[in-house]
Input
Amino acid sequence: MDKNFKEEFTQIIKFEPPLYKQRHQFVRDLVEKYKPKKVADLGCADCSLLWMLKFCSCIEVLAGLDICANVMKEKMHTLSPLPIDYLQPSERSLTVTLHHGSVAHKDPCMLGFDLVTCIELIEHLEESELKKFPEVVFGFMAPSIVVISTPNSEFNCLLPRVMLYRHPDHKFEWSQAEFQSWALETASCYDYSVEFTGVGHPPTGMEKVGFCTQIGVFFRKYPQTAESVQSEEPMEAVYKTVFKAVYPSLKDEKYLQNAVISEVIFTAQIIKHRLMSKREEYSDDPERKSKFQPSMDCFSDYLGKLVVEKNMEPFVSGNEVYIPLRTIFSFPKVNRLCGTFEKLCKLIAGKVTLSSDGSAVMFNIEHENEEN
Amino acid sequence: TIGLQVSSGLQDLSLRDRGGRRRDFHDLGVNTRQAMVHVQESKTGFSGKMIKLTTNHFRLTSRPQWALYQYHVGYSPEMEARRLRSALLFQHEETIGKTHAFDGSILFLPKKLENKVTELFSRTRNGEDVKITVTLTNELPPTSPTCLQFYNIIFRRLLKMLNLQQIGRNYYNPSDPVIIPNHRLMVWLGFTSSILQYEENIMLCTDVSHKVLRGETVLDTMHSLHSQVGEERFRDACAKELIGLIVLTKYNNRTYRIDDIDWDNNPKSTFRKSDGSEMSFVEYYKKQYNIEISDWMQPVLISQMKRKRGNIQGSVALIPELCSLTGLTDKMRSDFNMMKDLAIHTRLPPEQRQRELGRLLNYIQKDDNVQKELRNWGLSFDNKSVSFTGRIVQGEKIFQSGAMFDYNPQFADWTKETRGVPLIRSMPMDSWLLIYTRRNYDVANTLLQSLFKVTPSMGIHMNRPSMIEVDDRTEAYLRVLQQRVTSDINIVVCILSSSRKDKYDAIKKYLCTDCPIPSQCVLARTLSKPQTIMTVATKIALQMNCKMGGELWSVEIPLKQVMIVGIDCYHDTVSGKQSIAGFVASLNQSVTRWFSRCVVQSRGQELVDGIKTCLQTALRNWSKWNKSLPSRIFVYRDGVGDGQLNTLVNYEVPQFLDCLKSIGTDYSPRLTVIVVKKRVGARFFAEIGGGLRNPPPGTVVDTVVTRPEWYDFFVVSQTVKNGCVAPTHYNVIYDTSQLKPDHVQRLTYKLCHMYYNWSGIIRVPAPCQYAHKLAFLVGQSIHREPNLMLSDRLYYL
Output
């Protein structure tokens, strides 16, 4: 809840970048390293960590949970797909869901995650909730990795404006020893290993106090079996879903087809223009090359290589230009989208004007000639 | 001034309108009607036939005794961050309630707190105690301007709750797009919305809006431009195609306008972050959004930002690869096939349009969250649009050389009726030039033969022209013009082989400024189809006749001693430097002859001074023609943007009055100034035979959906083949004519018949369309004021 507010007590110790950003970066580095597909953020508050994670391309499922629906709702729209996500659907699929509920309760929607983050969460839990927390996260959710961060109370002496706790809603703040013993006990109880680290280095000479934020990274020691996810008898959902966004993805046939059609027509049009301007014996002045030129050169070189193969050569016949599908298929973007030539043919069938034998994209250039 | 502060506070509350300072788009608070005594009682006309109409306005209802409570929220000690302020305040939700709107200092609640002043205590995360004082400052009735702004904000919240995506000012539904792969376009259906106080009710005016999005990035577009135009013209082509377009970025939900392209920078270049550190774009996007920029050679786009406060100008650099295009370029607009394909999806006929709106209102009724929000505020919307009666005013009779015609009101066109009838005033073509390239020799001859066939019945005397063959180069055309055009030439006709603008511009520039002779450019392509050549030749003959000072037809103008003025503006979007105001004024009783001038002004200058000079010369010319000064002046002012009404009322009208005063102490003509607006949200549908149709031309609406504080009315003056007809809004902002509203409406409608480039009724009064044509020609091609020798002719048609 507090992680986004500027650390106002940094008059003497100023962290750069701010501590909350360092915590988020820590999570992101972890994501980059382990490439989890399903990530849940418990105590997601204003969703800023989730927002950052949605740009990580390995993640396909993102979930947030918070006890306060209002704080989630305030900025949850930042997790919605952007117009451009519809315009250029990404290859991966992504679903973002926000749940309203408590980490002291089990809900089946939290099963099957690879990474669960609890950033500055546990210190907000009441004693009774904290007691149930390990069973819910490690016993029930049982993800491969759990990240838990919490203030290190030993550091507080360097923060003169902090009276008792760093935030009035904190129920406790632990020393390194307290946190580590809790973490080790929890880990051994649920068959996890744990590594300790932190962000917010202490000033030189004060290394003893440790990081400002202490972090424990827990790794599940046993492999996940399909059984372990499903072994639980069907149980009731106790969380309330407050937000759900399914991102457009090329995994969805509808979006894939649109993308392929548009790419095929786009590519064909470029080839056509090249062809037409060659016919008009239009030549670029080699003296005047801009910085922008290289990528263009690559493109025309590529085209040059292509047309060596005879059957792939685009040609003009009467008022029509024919661009073989094989040529179009050999373009990296089209190729990557479709995978196989058959798939390409299937996807554009009936949507793009083809030659009578279906082997080439056909354009009528009758009207265009008049245009110029 | 309290009201002002309220509005400025509310602006923060509103969902962001990007990239610009917010204006009072609805011109709230400009009350012009109160100064016009003769329309205090009634501003409605009476003539014509009644017609049952329905519209796209939906009544907003609030429960009885509804009020909005406005509070000022103070913090002690003072808290800076807006989010902190909200967080601290909403620790007290049990006092304040769940329903609220808060912008950091002004709080709106649907309920009255127990005390006028409520003190609350909160604690910040670092243990600081803060006293919050919530003071009731206003109890707003439903119709107060602040409330209206508030409704609009709430309505936008609702649209957001319905999962519509905001792009620019409107909201769109991304889940069901129309894809037009041939042109790489995607169309999203969405809604415009505004809630205003209308004649008797507060209503939501909503219309279907289509957002054209393009499935390509700016970089894609640059690549395809490069392959089309080659290296040499590449940068120019990019500037022409891209500057002024609105882009969406890959990483946030903002729109930016491309103002410039910086070719000296690329993604590897660094920029200074707000904390002062330097970082390259590549690094920044990787770090901030985990986005890899693949092309490191692309240039950088520049978007100017107008900051909210203090108007500080800053600019944002954007990476072409990460920007997606929206909207249409001029080039796309001129692509007939593309527009045709688009129109299929965007031109919704009345029934379908109403159905889409019905769907929106249905969503609103059905969505629990939306209903809850509305209920909490004590508001609700009718789900049926308002209906009322309008009037269809009588059709005009068209007079042409003693003959009189009625036109079929269904088509609003008299091309057929007037064919073969002599023109009111036909100008001889005794001496004229026909310039063409070798390739177009045949076309030139075809045109000539056809002109010889169509001109006699119009009463135009035509000799053989001097036929001149030129090379297809701009210089060749210019050289011929310089050698062959003399002052006794009536008109110069150029046949152009392509629509390349530079040639056209050069010809127009020379013949409008250096050597003032009317000119007619024709594309060879338009003459190449044998089946349409006679129609084309007829149109060209009429157009040329007007350019030389001829007159075609007239309608009855019952007012005597009247001068009619039309003003429109053109803003140069490409160079962004110039604005041009076109000014035309009638010269004769039958308003068939027009005097014209224009004002070319650089950015930031006010148009007003120039217009004053125009009016002075117009009056001088009128008196030369009529041997007296006009006793009535009507100004039809087009080209007024949303939110500019105040400027017009307070600066432009006084300048007109000043100008009239300067003519002579004993000269005080009656003046009427009417603001003409083509882009309005209102749509009218005629209930005919159980279905909805477009209302016929001549439909006048001056009740229910007009504004109580204005003397305004709508006229539907044109017809459309597809889609919905758009009414034109007329707002009489100044009027000492003492004429009845009915007469002003009738005069306005009559003037829509007088545009000589179209033998039918058009959407605006002819003087506005003439002024538009003039401003467009000057802005697009000539860039300075044309020679005044031409000022009594319609050379700009």
Notes: The CA atoms of residues 329 and 335 of chain A lie 5 Å apart. The domain at 19-247 of chain A is CATH 3.40.50.150 (Rossmann fold).
